[in-house]
Each structure stands twice: as C-alpha cells, then as structure tokens.
Amino acid sequence: MQILTFKTTEEIGAAAGKLFVETVQNNPKAVLGLATGATPVPTYEYMAKEYENGNVSFKDVTTFNLDEYCDLPKEHKNSFYSFMVDNLFSKIDVKDENINFLDGNVEDPDAESKRYADAIINAGGIDIQFLGVGRNGHIAFNEPADEFTDEAFKVKLTDSTIEANSIYFDDIPMPRYAMTMGIGSIMRAKKIVFVATGSSKAEAVRAMVKGEVTPSCPASILQNHPDCYVLLDEAAAALL
Ligand code: F6R
C-alpha cells in the first residue's frame, strides 16, 4: 500500500481524480470501478472539471459501480445509480450503455452476481477501482464477517452502516439489504484508489493498515493488493 496524507479533501479529490484521469488518458477504453457516498464527491468533481476543460474524454470508458440498495427503484433519488448520475455521469460524456450497476431488485441474487462477474470479465477486468471505507471497516458493502467473500452477493446491512447512511433518507426508511461486489471482485482490480477522510474513519484506517488481515476488518485485505493507493486526510490518518 502506498499511503499518502493530504491537508484538504480538495487535495485528495485532485490526487485521486488525477489517477483516474491519467488511466483514461493512457487507455480511453479503460474500465473504471466506482463508489458512492460522501468520500468520492471531490474526486468526481475533479474528473468532471478535467472533462469540462477538454483534458479527457470518458466516451469510451466502461464503468462498474460497487453496490446498489435492494428494494429501491433504480430511479429513486437515493439509489446509488441516481447518486452517480447527479455527481458524475451527467457531467461527463460516458455513454449510458457503458454504465453497469448491480440490480438490487432481482429475484435471484446468485444469477445477478454471475451476470455482473461475466460483464466485468467481458469488459476486460477493472483497471482502476475507487474505494471508500465504512466506520466498521467495510469496503463496498462487505460488512465485518467470518470470511472474505468473492463475487457479488446480497447482504444485510449492519446497524453501523444503517446509522451512517440513514441521514440521506428523508422520505422512506433506508433499505436493509444491498447487492454488493465481493472482496474477490474488488481485489482483482488492477489498481485501487482507497480514500478515507475525517476522524470517524481513523480507527478503521488503523485496523486496515496496522492490524492483521482479517474479514472482521474487510478493508485489511488491501494489504495484499499489489497496486493500492491509500489517500488520507490528517484526521483519518491520526491513529497511524
Ligand atoms: C459506497 C460504498 C461504501 C462507502 C462507505 C463510506 O459505494 O461502497 O463502502 O464507500 O460506506 O461511505 P462515505 O464515503 O459516505 O463515508
């Protein structure tokens, strides 16, 4: 892991965004793994600005998002799909048909997992994957568990995750389940850009970097990834 510490979230957004933009400049058909939540917003702002300034085009990239809520229509304002449209896709020239999401409303999660795994393989694998982290050490929605997962699966969200994300749901209760990429799918990405900001992430970052590799802190598996950037602000790095 290459650990870098920054003063502001804007600086982190520029550093993470630059890694994505450079990947696309070097390979216009790059496959991007994307995340939702507060953490990637400055990164997506940087990417949109670079597109606006004519420095990069996303017209031939393919994207795969990490996760999506179950039992929530795709077009609902709180779906991760809507989040991505609002924060990135509507601001760049990515093609609709190149945007991939897990479907949280399927009858058969195992078939959906297989569909997503096949789509990732057919696209040539993920070249660069953005990751945030939960306060409990989750990556995507791989919550602390007894073993590491592999491909995508349906997960029951933990109380910690529900508490953290409920703030976004003002009209309906937050979904209790999600479809998420598994740890294996994440670890197969060629490059990982992990970002954590704020003191609420400091303990998870400590366990991830300094603790043993264990599924009780899913992010700790990143110690085994050959090309993983860890971008932190001072608050998130405080316990290192
Ligand atoms: C989102 C995701 C989650 C978030 C994590 C941190 O697609 O996979 O693992 O990265 O919950 O969320 P924020 O950035 O809102 O603190």
Helix content: 25-40%
Silhouette: globular
Number of domain units: 1
- Global Rg: 17 Å
CATH topology: Rossmann fold
Q: What is the arithmetic mean of pLDDT?
A: 97
Number of helices: 7
As a percent range, the share of strand residues is: 15-25%
At the first level of CATH, the class is Alpha Beta
Describe this structure in words.
The protein has 240 residues and is of the alpha/beta class. The protein has one domain (2-233): 3-Layer(aba) Sandwich (Rossmann fold). 30% of the residues lie in helices and 18% in strands. It has helices at residues 9-26, 41-52, 80-87, 109-122, 159-165, 183-187, 202-210, and strands at residues 2-6, 31-34, 62-65, 67-69, 99-100, 128-131, 153-156, 177-180, 191-196, 228-233. It has a seven-stranded parallel sheet, with helices on both faces. Strands 4-8-7 form a three-stranded antiparallel sheet. The chain is globular. Residues 35-39, 66-67, 132-134, 138-141 line the site of fructose -6-phosphate (F6R).
Topology:
Layout: E1 2-6, H1 9-26, E2 31-34, H2 41-52, E3 62-65, E4 67-69, H3 80-87, E5 99-100, H4 109-122, E6 128-131, E7 153-156, H5 159-165, E8 177-180, H6 183-187, E9 191-196, H7 202-210, E10 228-233
Parallel strand pairs: 1-10, 2-3, 2-6, 3-5, 6-9, 9-10
Antiparallel strand pairs: 4-8, 7-8
The site of fructose -6-phosphate has 14 residues, from loops.
Care to give the gist of this entry?
The chain has helices spanning 9-26, 41-52, 80-87, 109-122, 159-165, 183-187, 202-210, and strands at residues 2-6, 31-34, 62-65, 67-69, 99-100, 128-131, 153-156, 177-180, 191-196, 228-233.
